[in-house]
Amino acid sequence: EILSLVGNFTSLGSRVVGYPGFYTAEEIIKSYFSRVADKVIIQNYTLAVPIDEGTYVIVRGKKFPAYALWPNGPVTSKTPPSGVSGPLVYVGKGGLRELDGHIVNGSILLMEFNSGDNWRLAAQFGAKAVIFIEPGYTDKFEVLKKAIPIPVHFPRIYVETHVGDILKEYASNNSIATIHVNMRWKLVDASNIIGVIRGTEYPDDVIVVTAHYDSWSIVPSKSPGTQDAIGVSALLSLAKYFSQHRPKRTLWFAAISSYWEGLAGATEFVEQNLYSSANLNGT
Questions:
Q1: First to last CA, the chain
Q2: 21 near 15, Cβ under 8 Å?
Q3: Taking the C-alpha atoms of 257, 260, 266 and 267 in order, what is their torsion angle to the nearest 10 degrees?
């Protein structure tokens, strides 16, 4: 059953907090707990997250889907309504040798995703933006080099491989590209979802089992989060098991959200269950 649940969660698209797949995951968890738990507790809260409301590239009148990267610090690099335009230049991995001979200043550079932090060279040499092309494989070390915690306004977007191949052709024909980045910070709703299985002998003793159900990606619109789905899938399966094999002590199976947003969901769980005035008064 765990593999089936993992498949369900990863089929939802992005589960970054605030994106549609996240809210579908919430409903899956609530529905599952309603079938197996004695009680379901919902802890609601709000937080600010960067939401991509539609990012795209236009070349020679044709519009191609694209996806904004995670902000540099607080800066989402949102473009003006008219977008940002410049000659489209393919630079491979964007190293100094590959930049040599190209006019970088004022251009929009088309770059392989697995290029380290060479996008920073592009910014330093006056490029207007970088378009990363989806790789066949990457790793977290590549990913974490694509944003910095400094508020630098430099648009960075991501396109799928087939779009990248088309854009390479346009770049070879000296085409002008216009990019539109529509990412902004929004205050969104999130929930921690707790399935309670009451103990048969010591119901006032509570053991808490947790896993987070949100995901994260440097490209928040594309975050299926397979690894992140394993923990919550195991959590649900455990809840089902103990609904059929009743524990002596009460179990709280807590599906926590916003793990990747500074542990906001875990903080909310602790605040509501350990430090609230109700709990401090022993009620």
A1: 37
A2: yes
A3: -120
pLDDT digits (tens, 9 = 90+) for 1-41: 899 999 999 999 999 999 999 999 999 999 999 999 999 99
Backbone torsions φ then ψ of 236, nearest 5 degrees: -65, -40
Q: How far is CA 112 from the centre of its chain?
A: 21
The 8-class DSSP code of residue 75 comes to B
Helix (H) or strand (E) holding 9: helix 2-10
Q: What is the pLDDT of residues 75-131, one digit of tens each?
A: 999 999 999 999 999 999 999 999 999 999 999 999 999 999 999 999 999 999 999
Q: Of all residues in the chain, what percent are helix, strand and coil, respectively (each to 5)?
A: 30, 30, 40
Question: Cβ(92)–Cβ(83) under 8 Å?
Answer: no
**Average of per-residue pLDDT across 57-66:** 98
Nearest-angstrom CA–CA distance, 278 and 171: 63
pTM value is 0.91
The one-letter amino acid code at 80 reads: P
Q: What is the pLDDT of residue 152?
A: 95
* Burial of residue 111, with CB atoms counted within 10 A of its CB: 0-12 exposed, 13-18 middle, 19 or more buried: buried
Q: How far is CA 134 from CA 91, 98, 146, 230, 240, in A?
A: 15, 19, 13, 24, 39
Q: Which residues contact 269 (CB under 8 A, 6 or more apart)?
A: 43, 192, 210, 254, 256
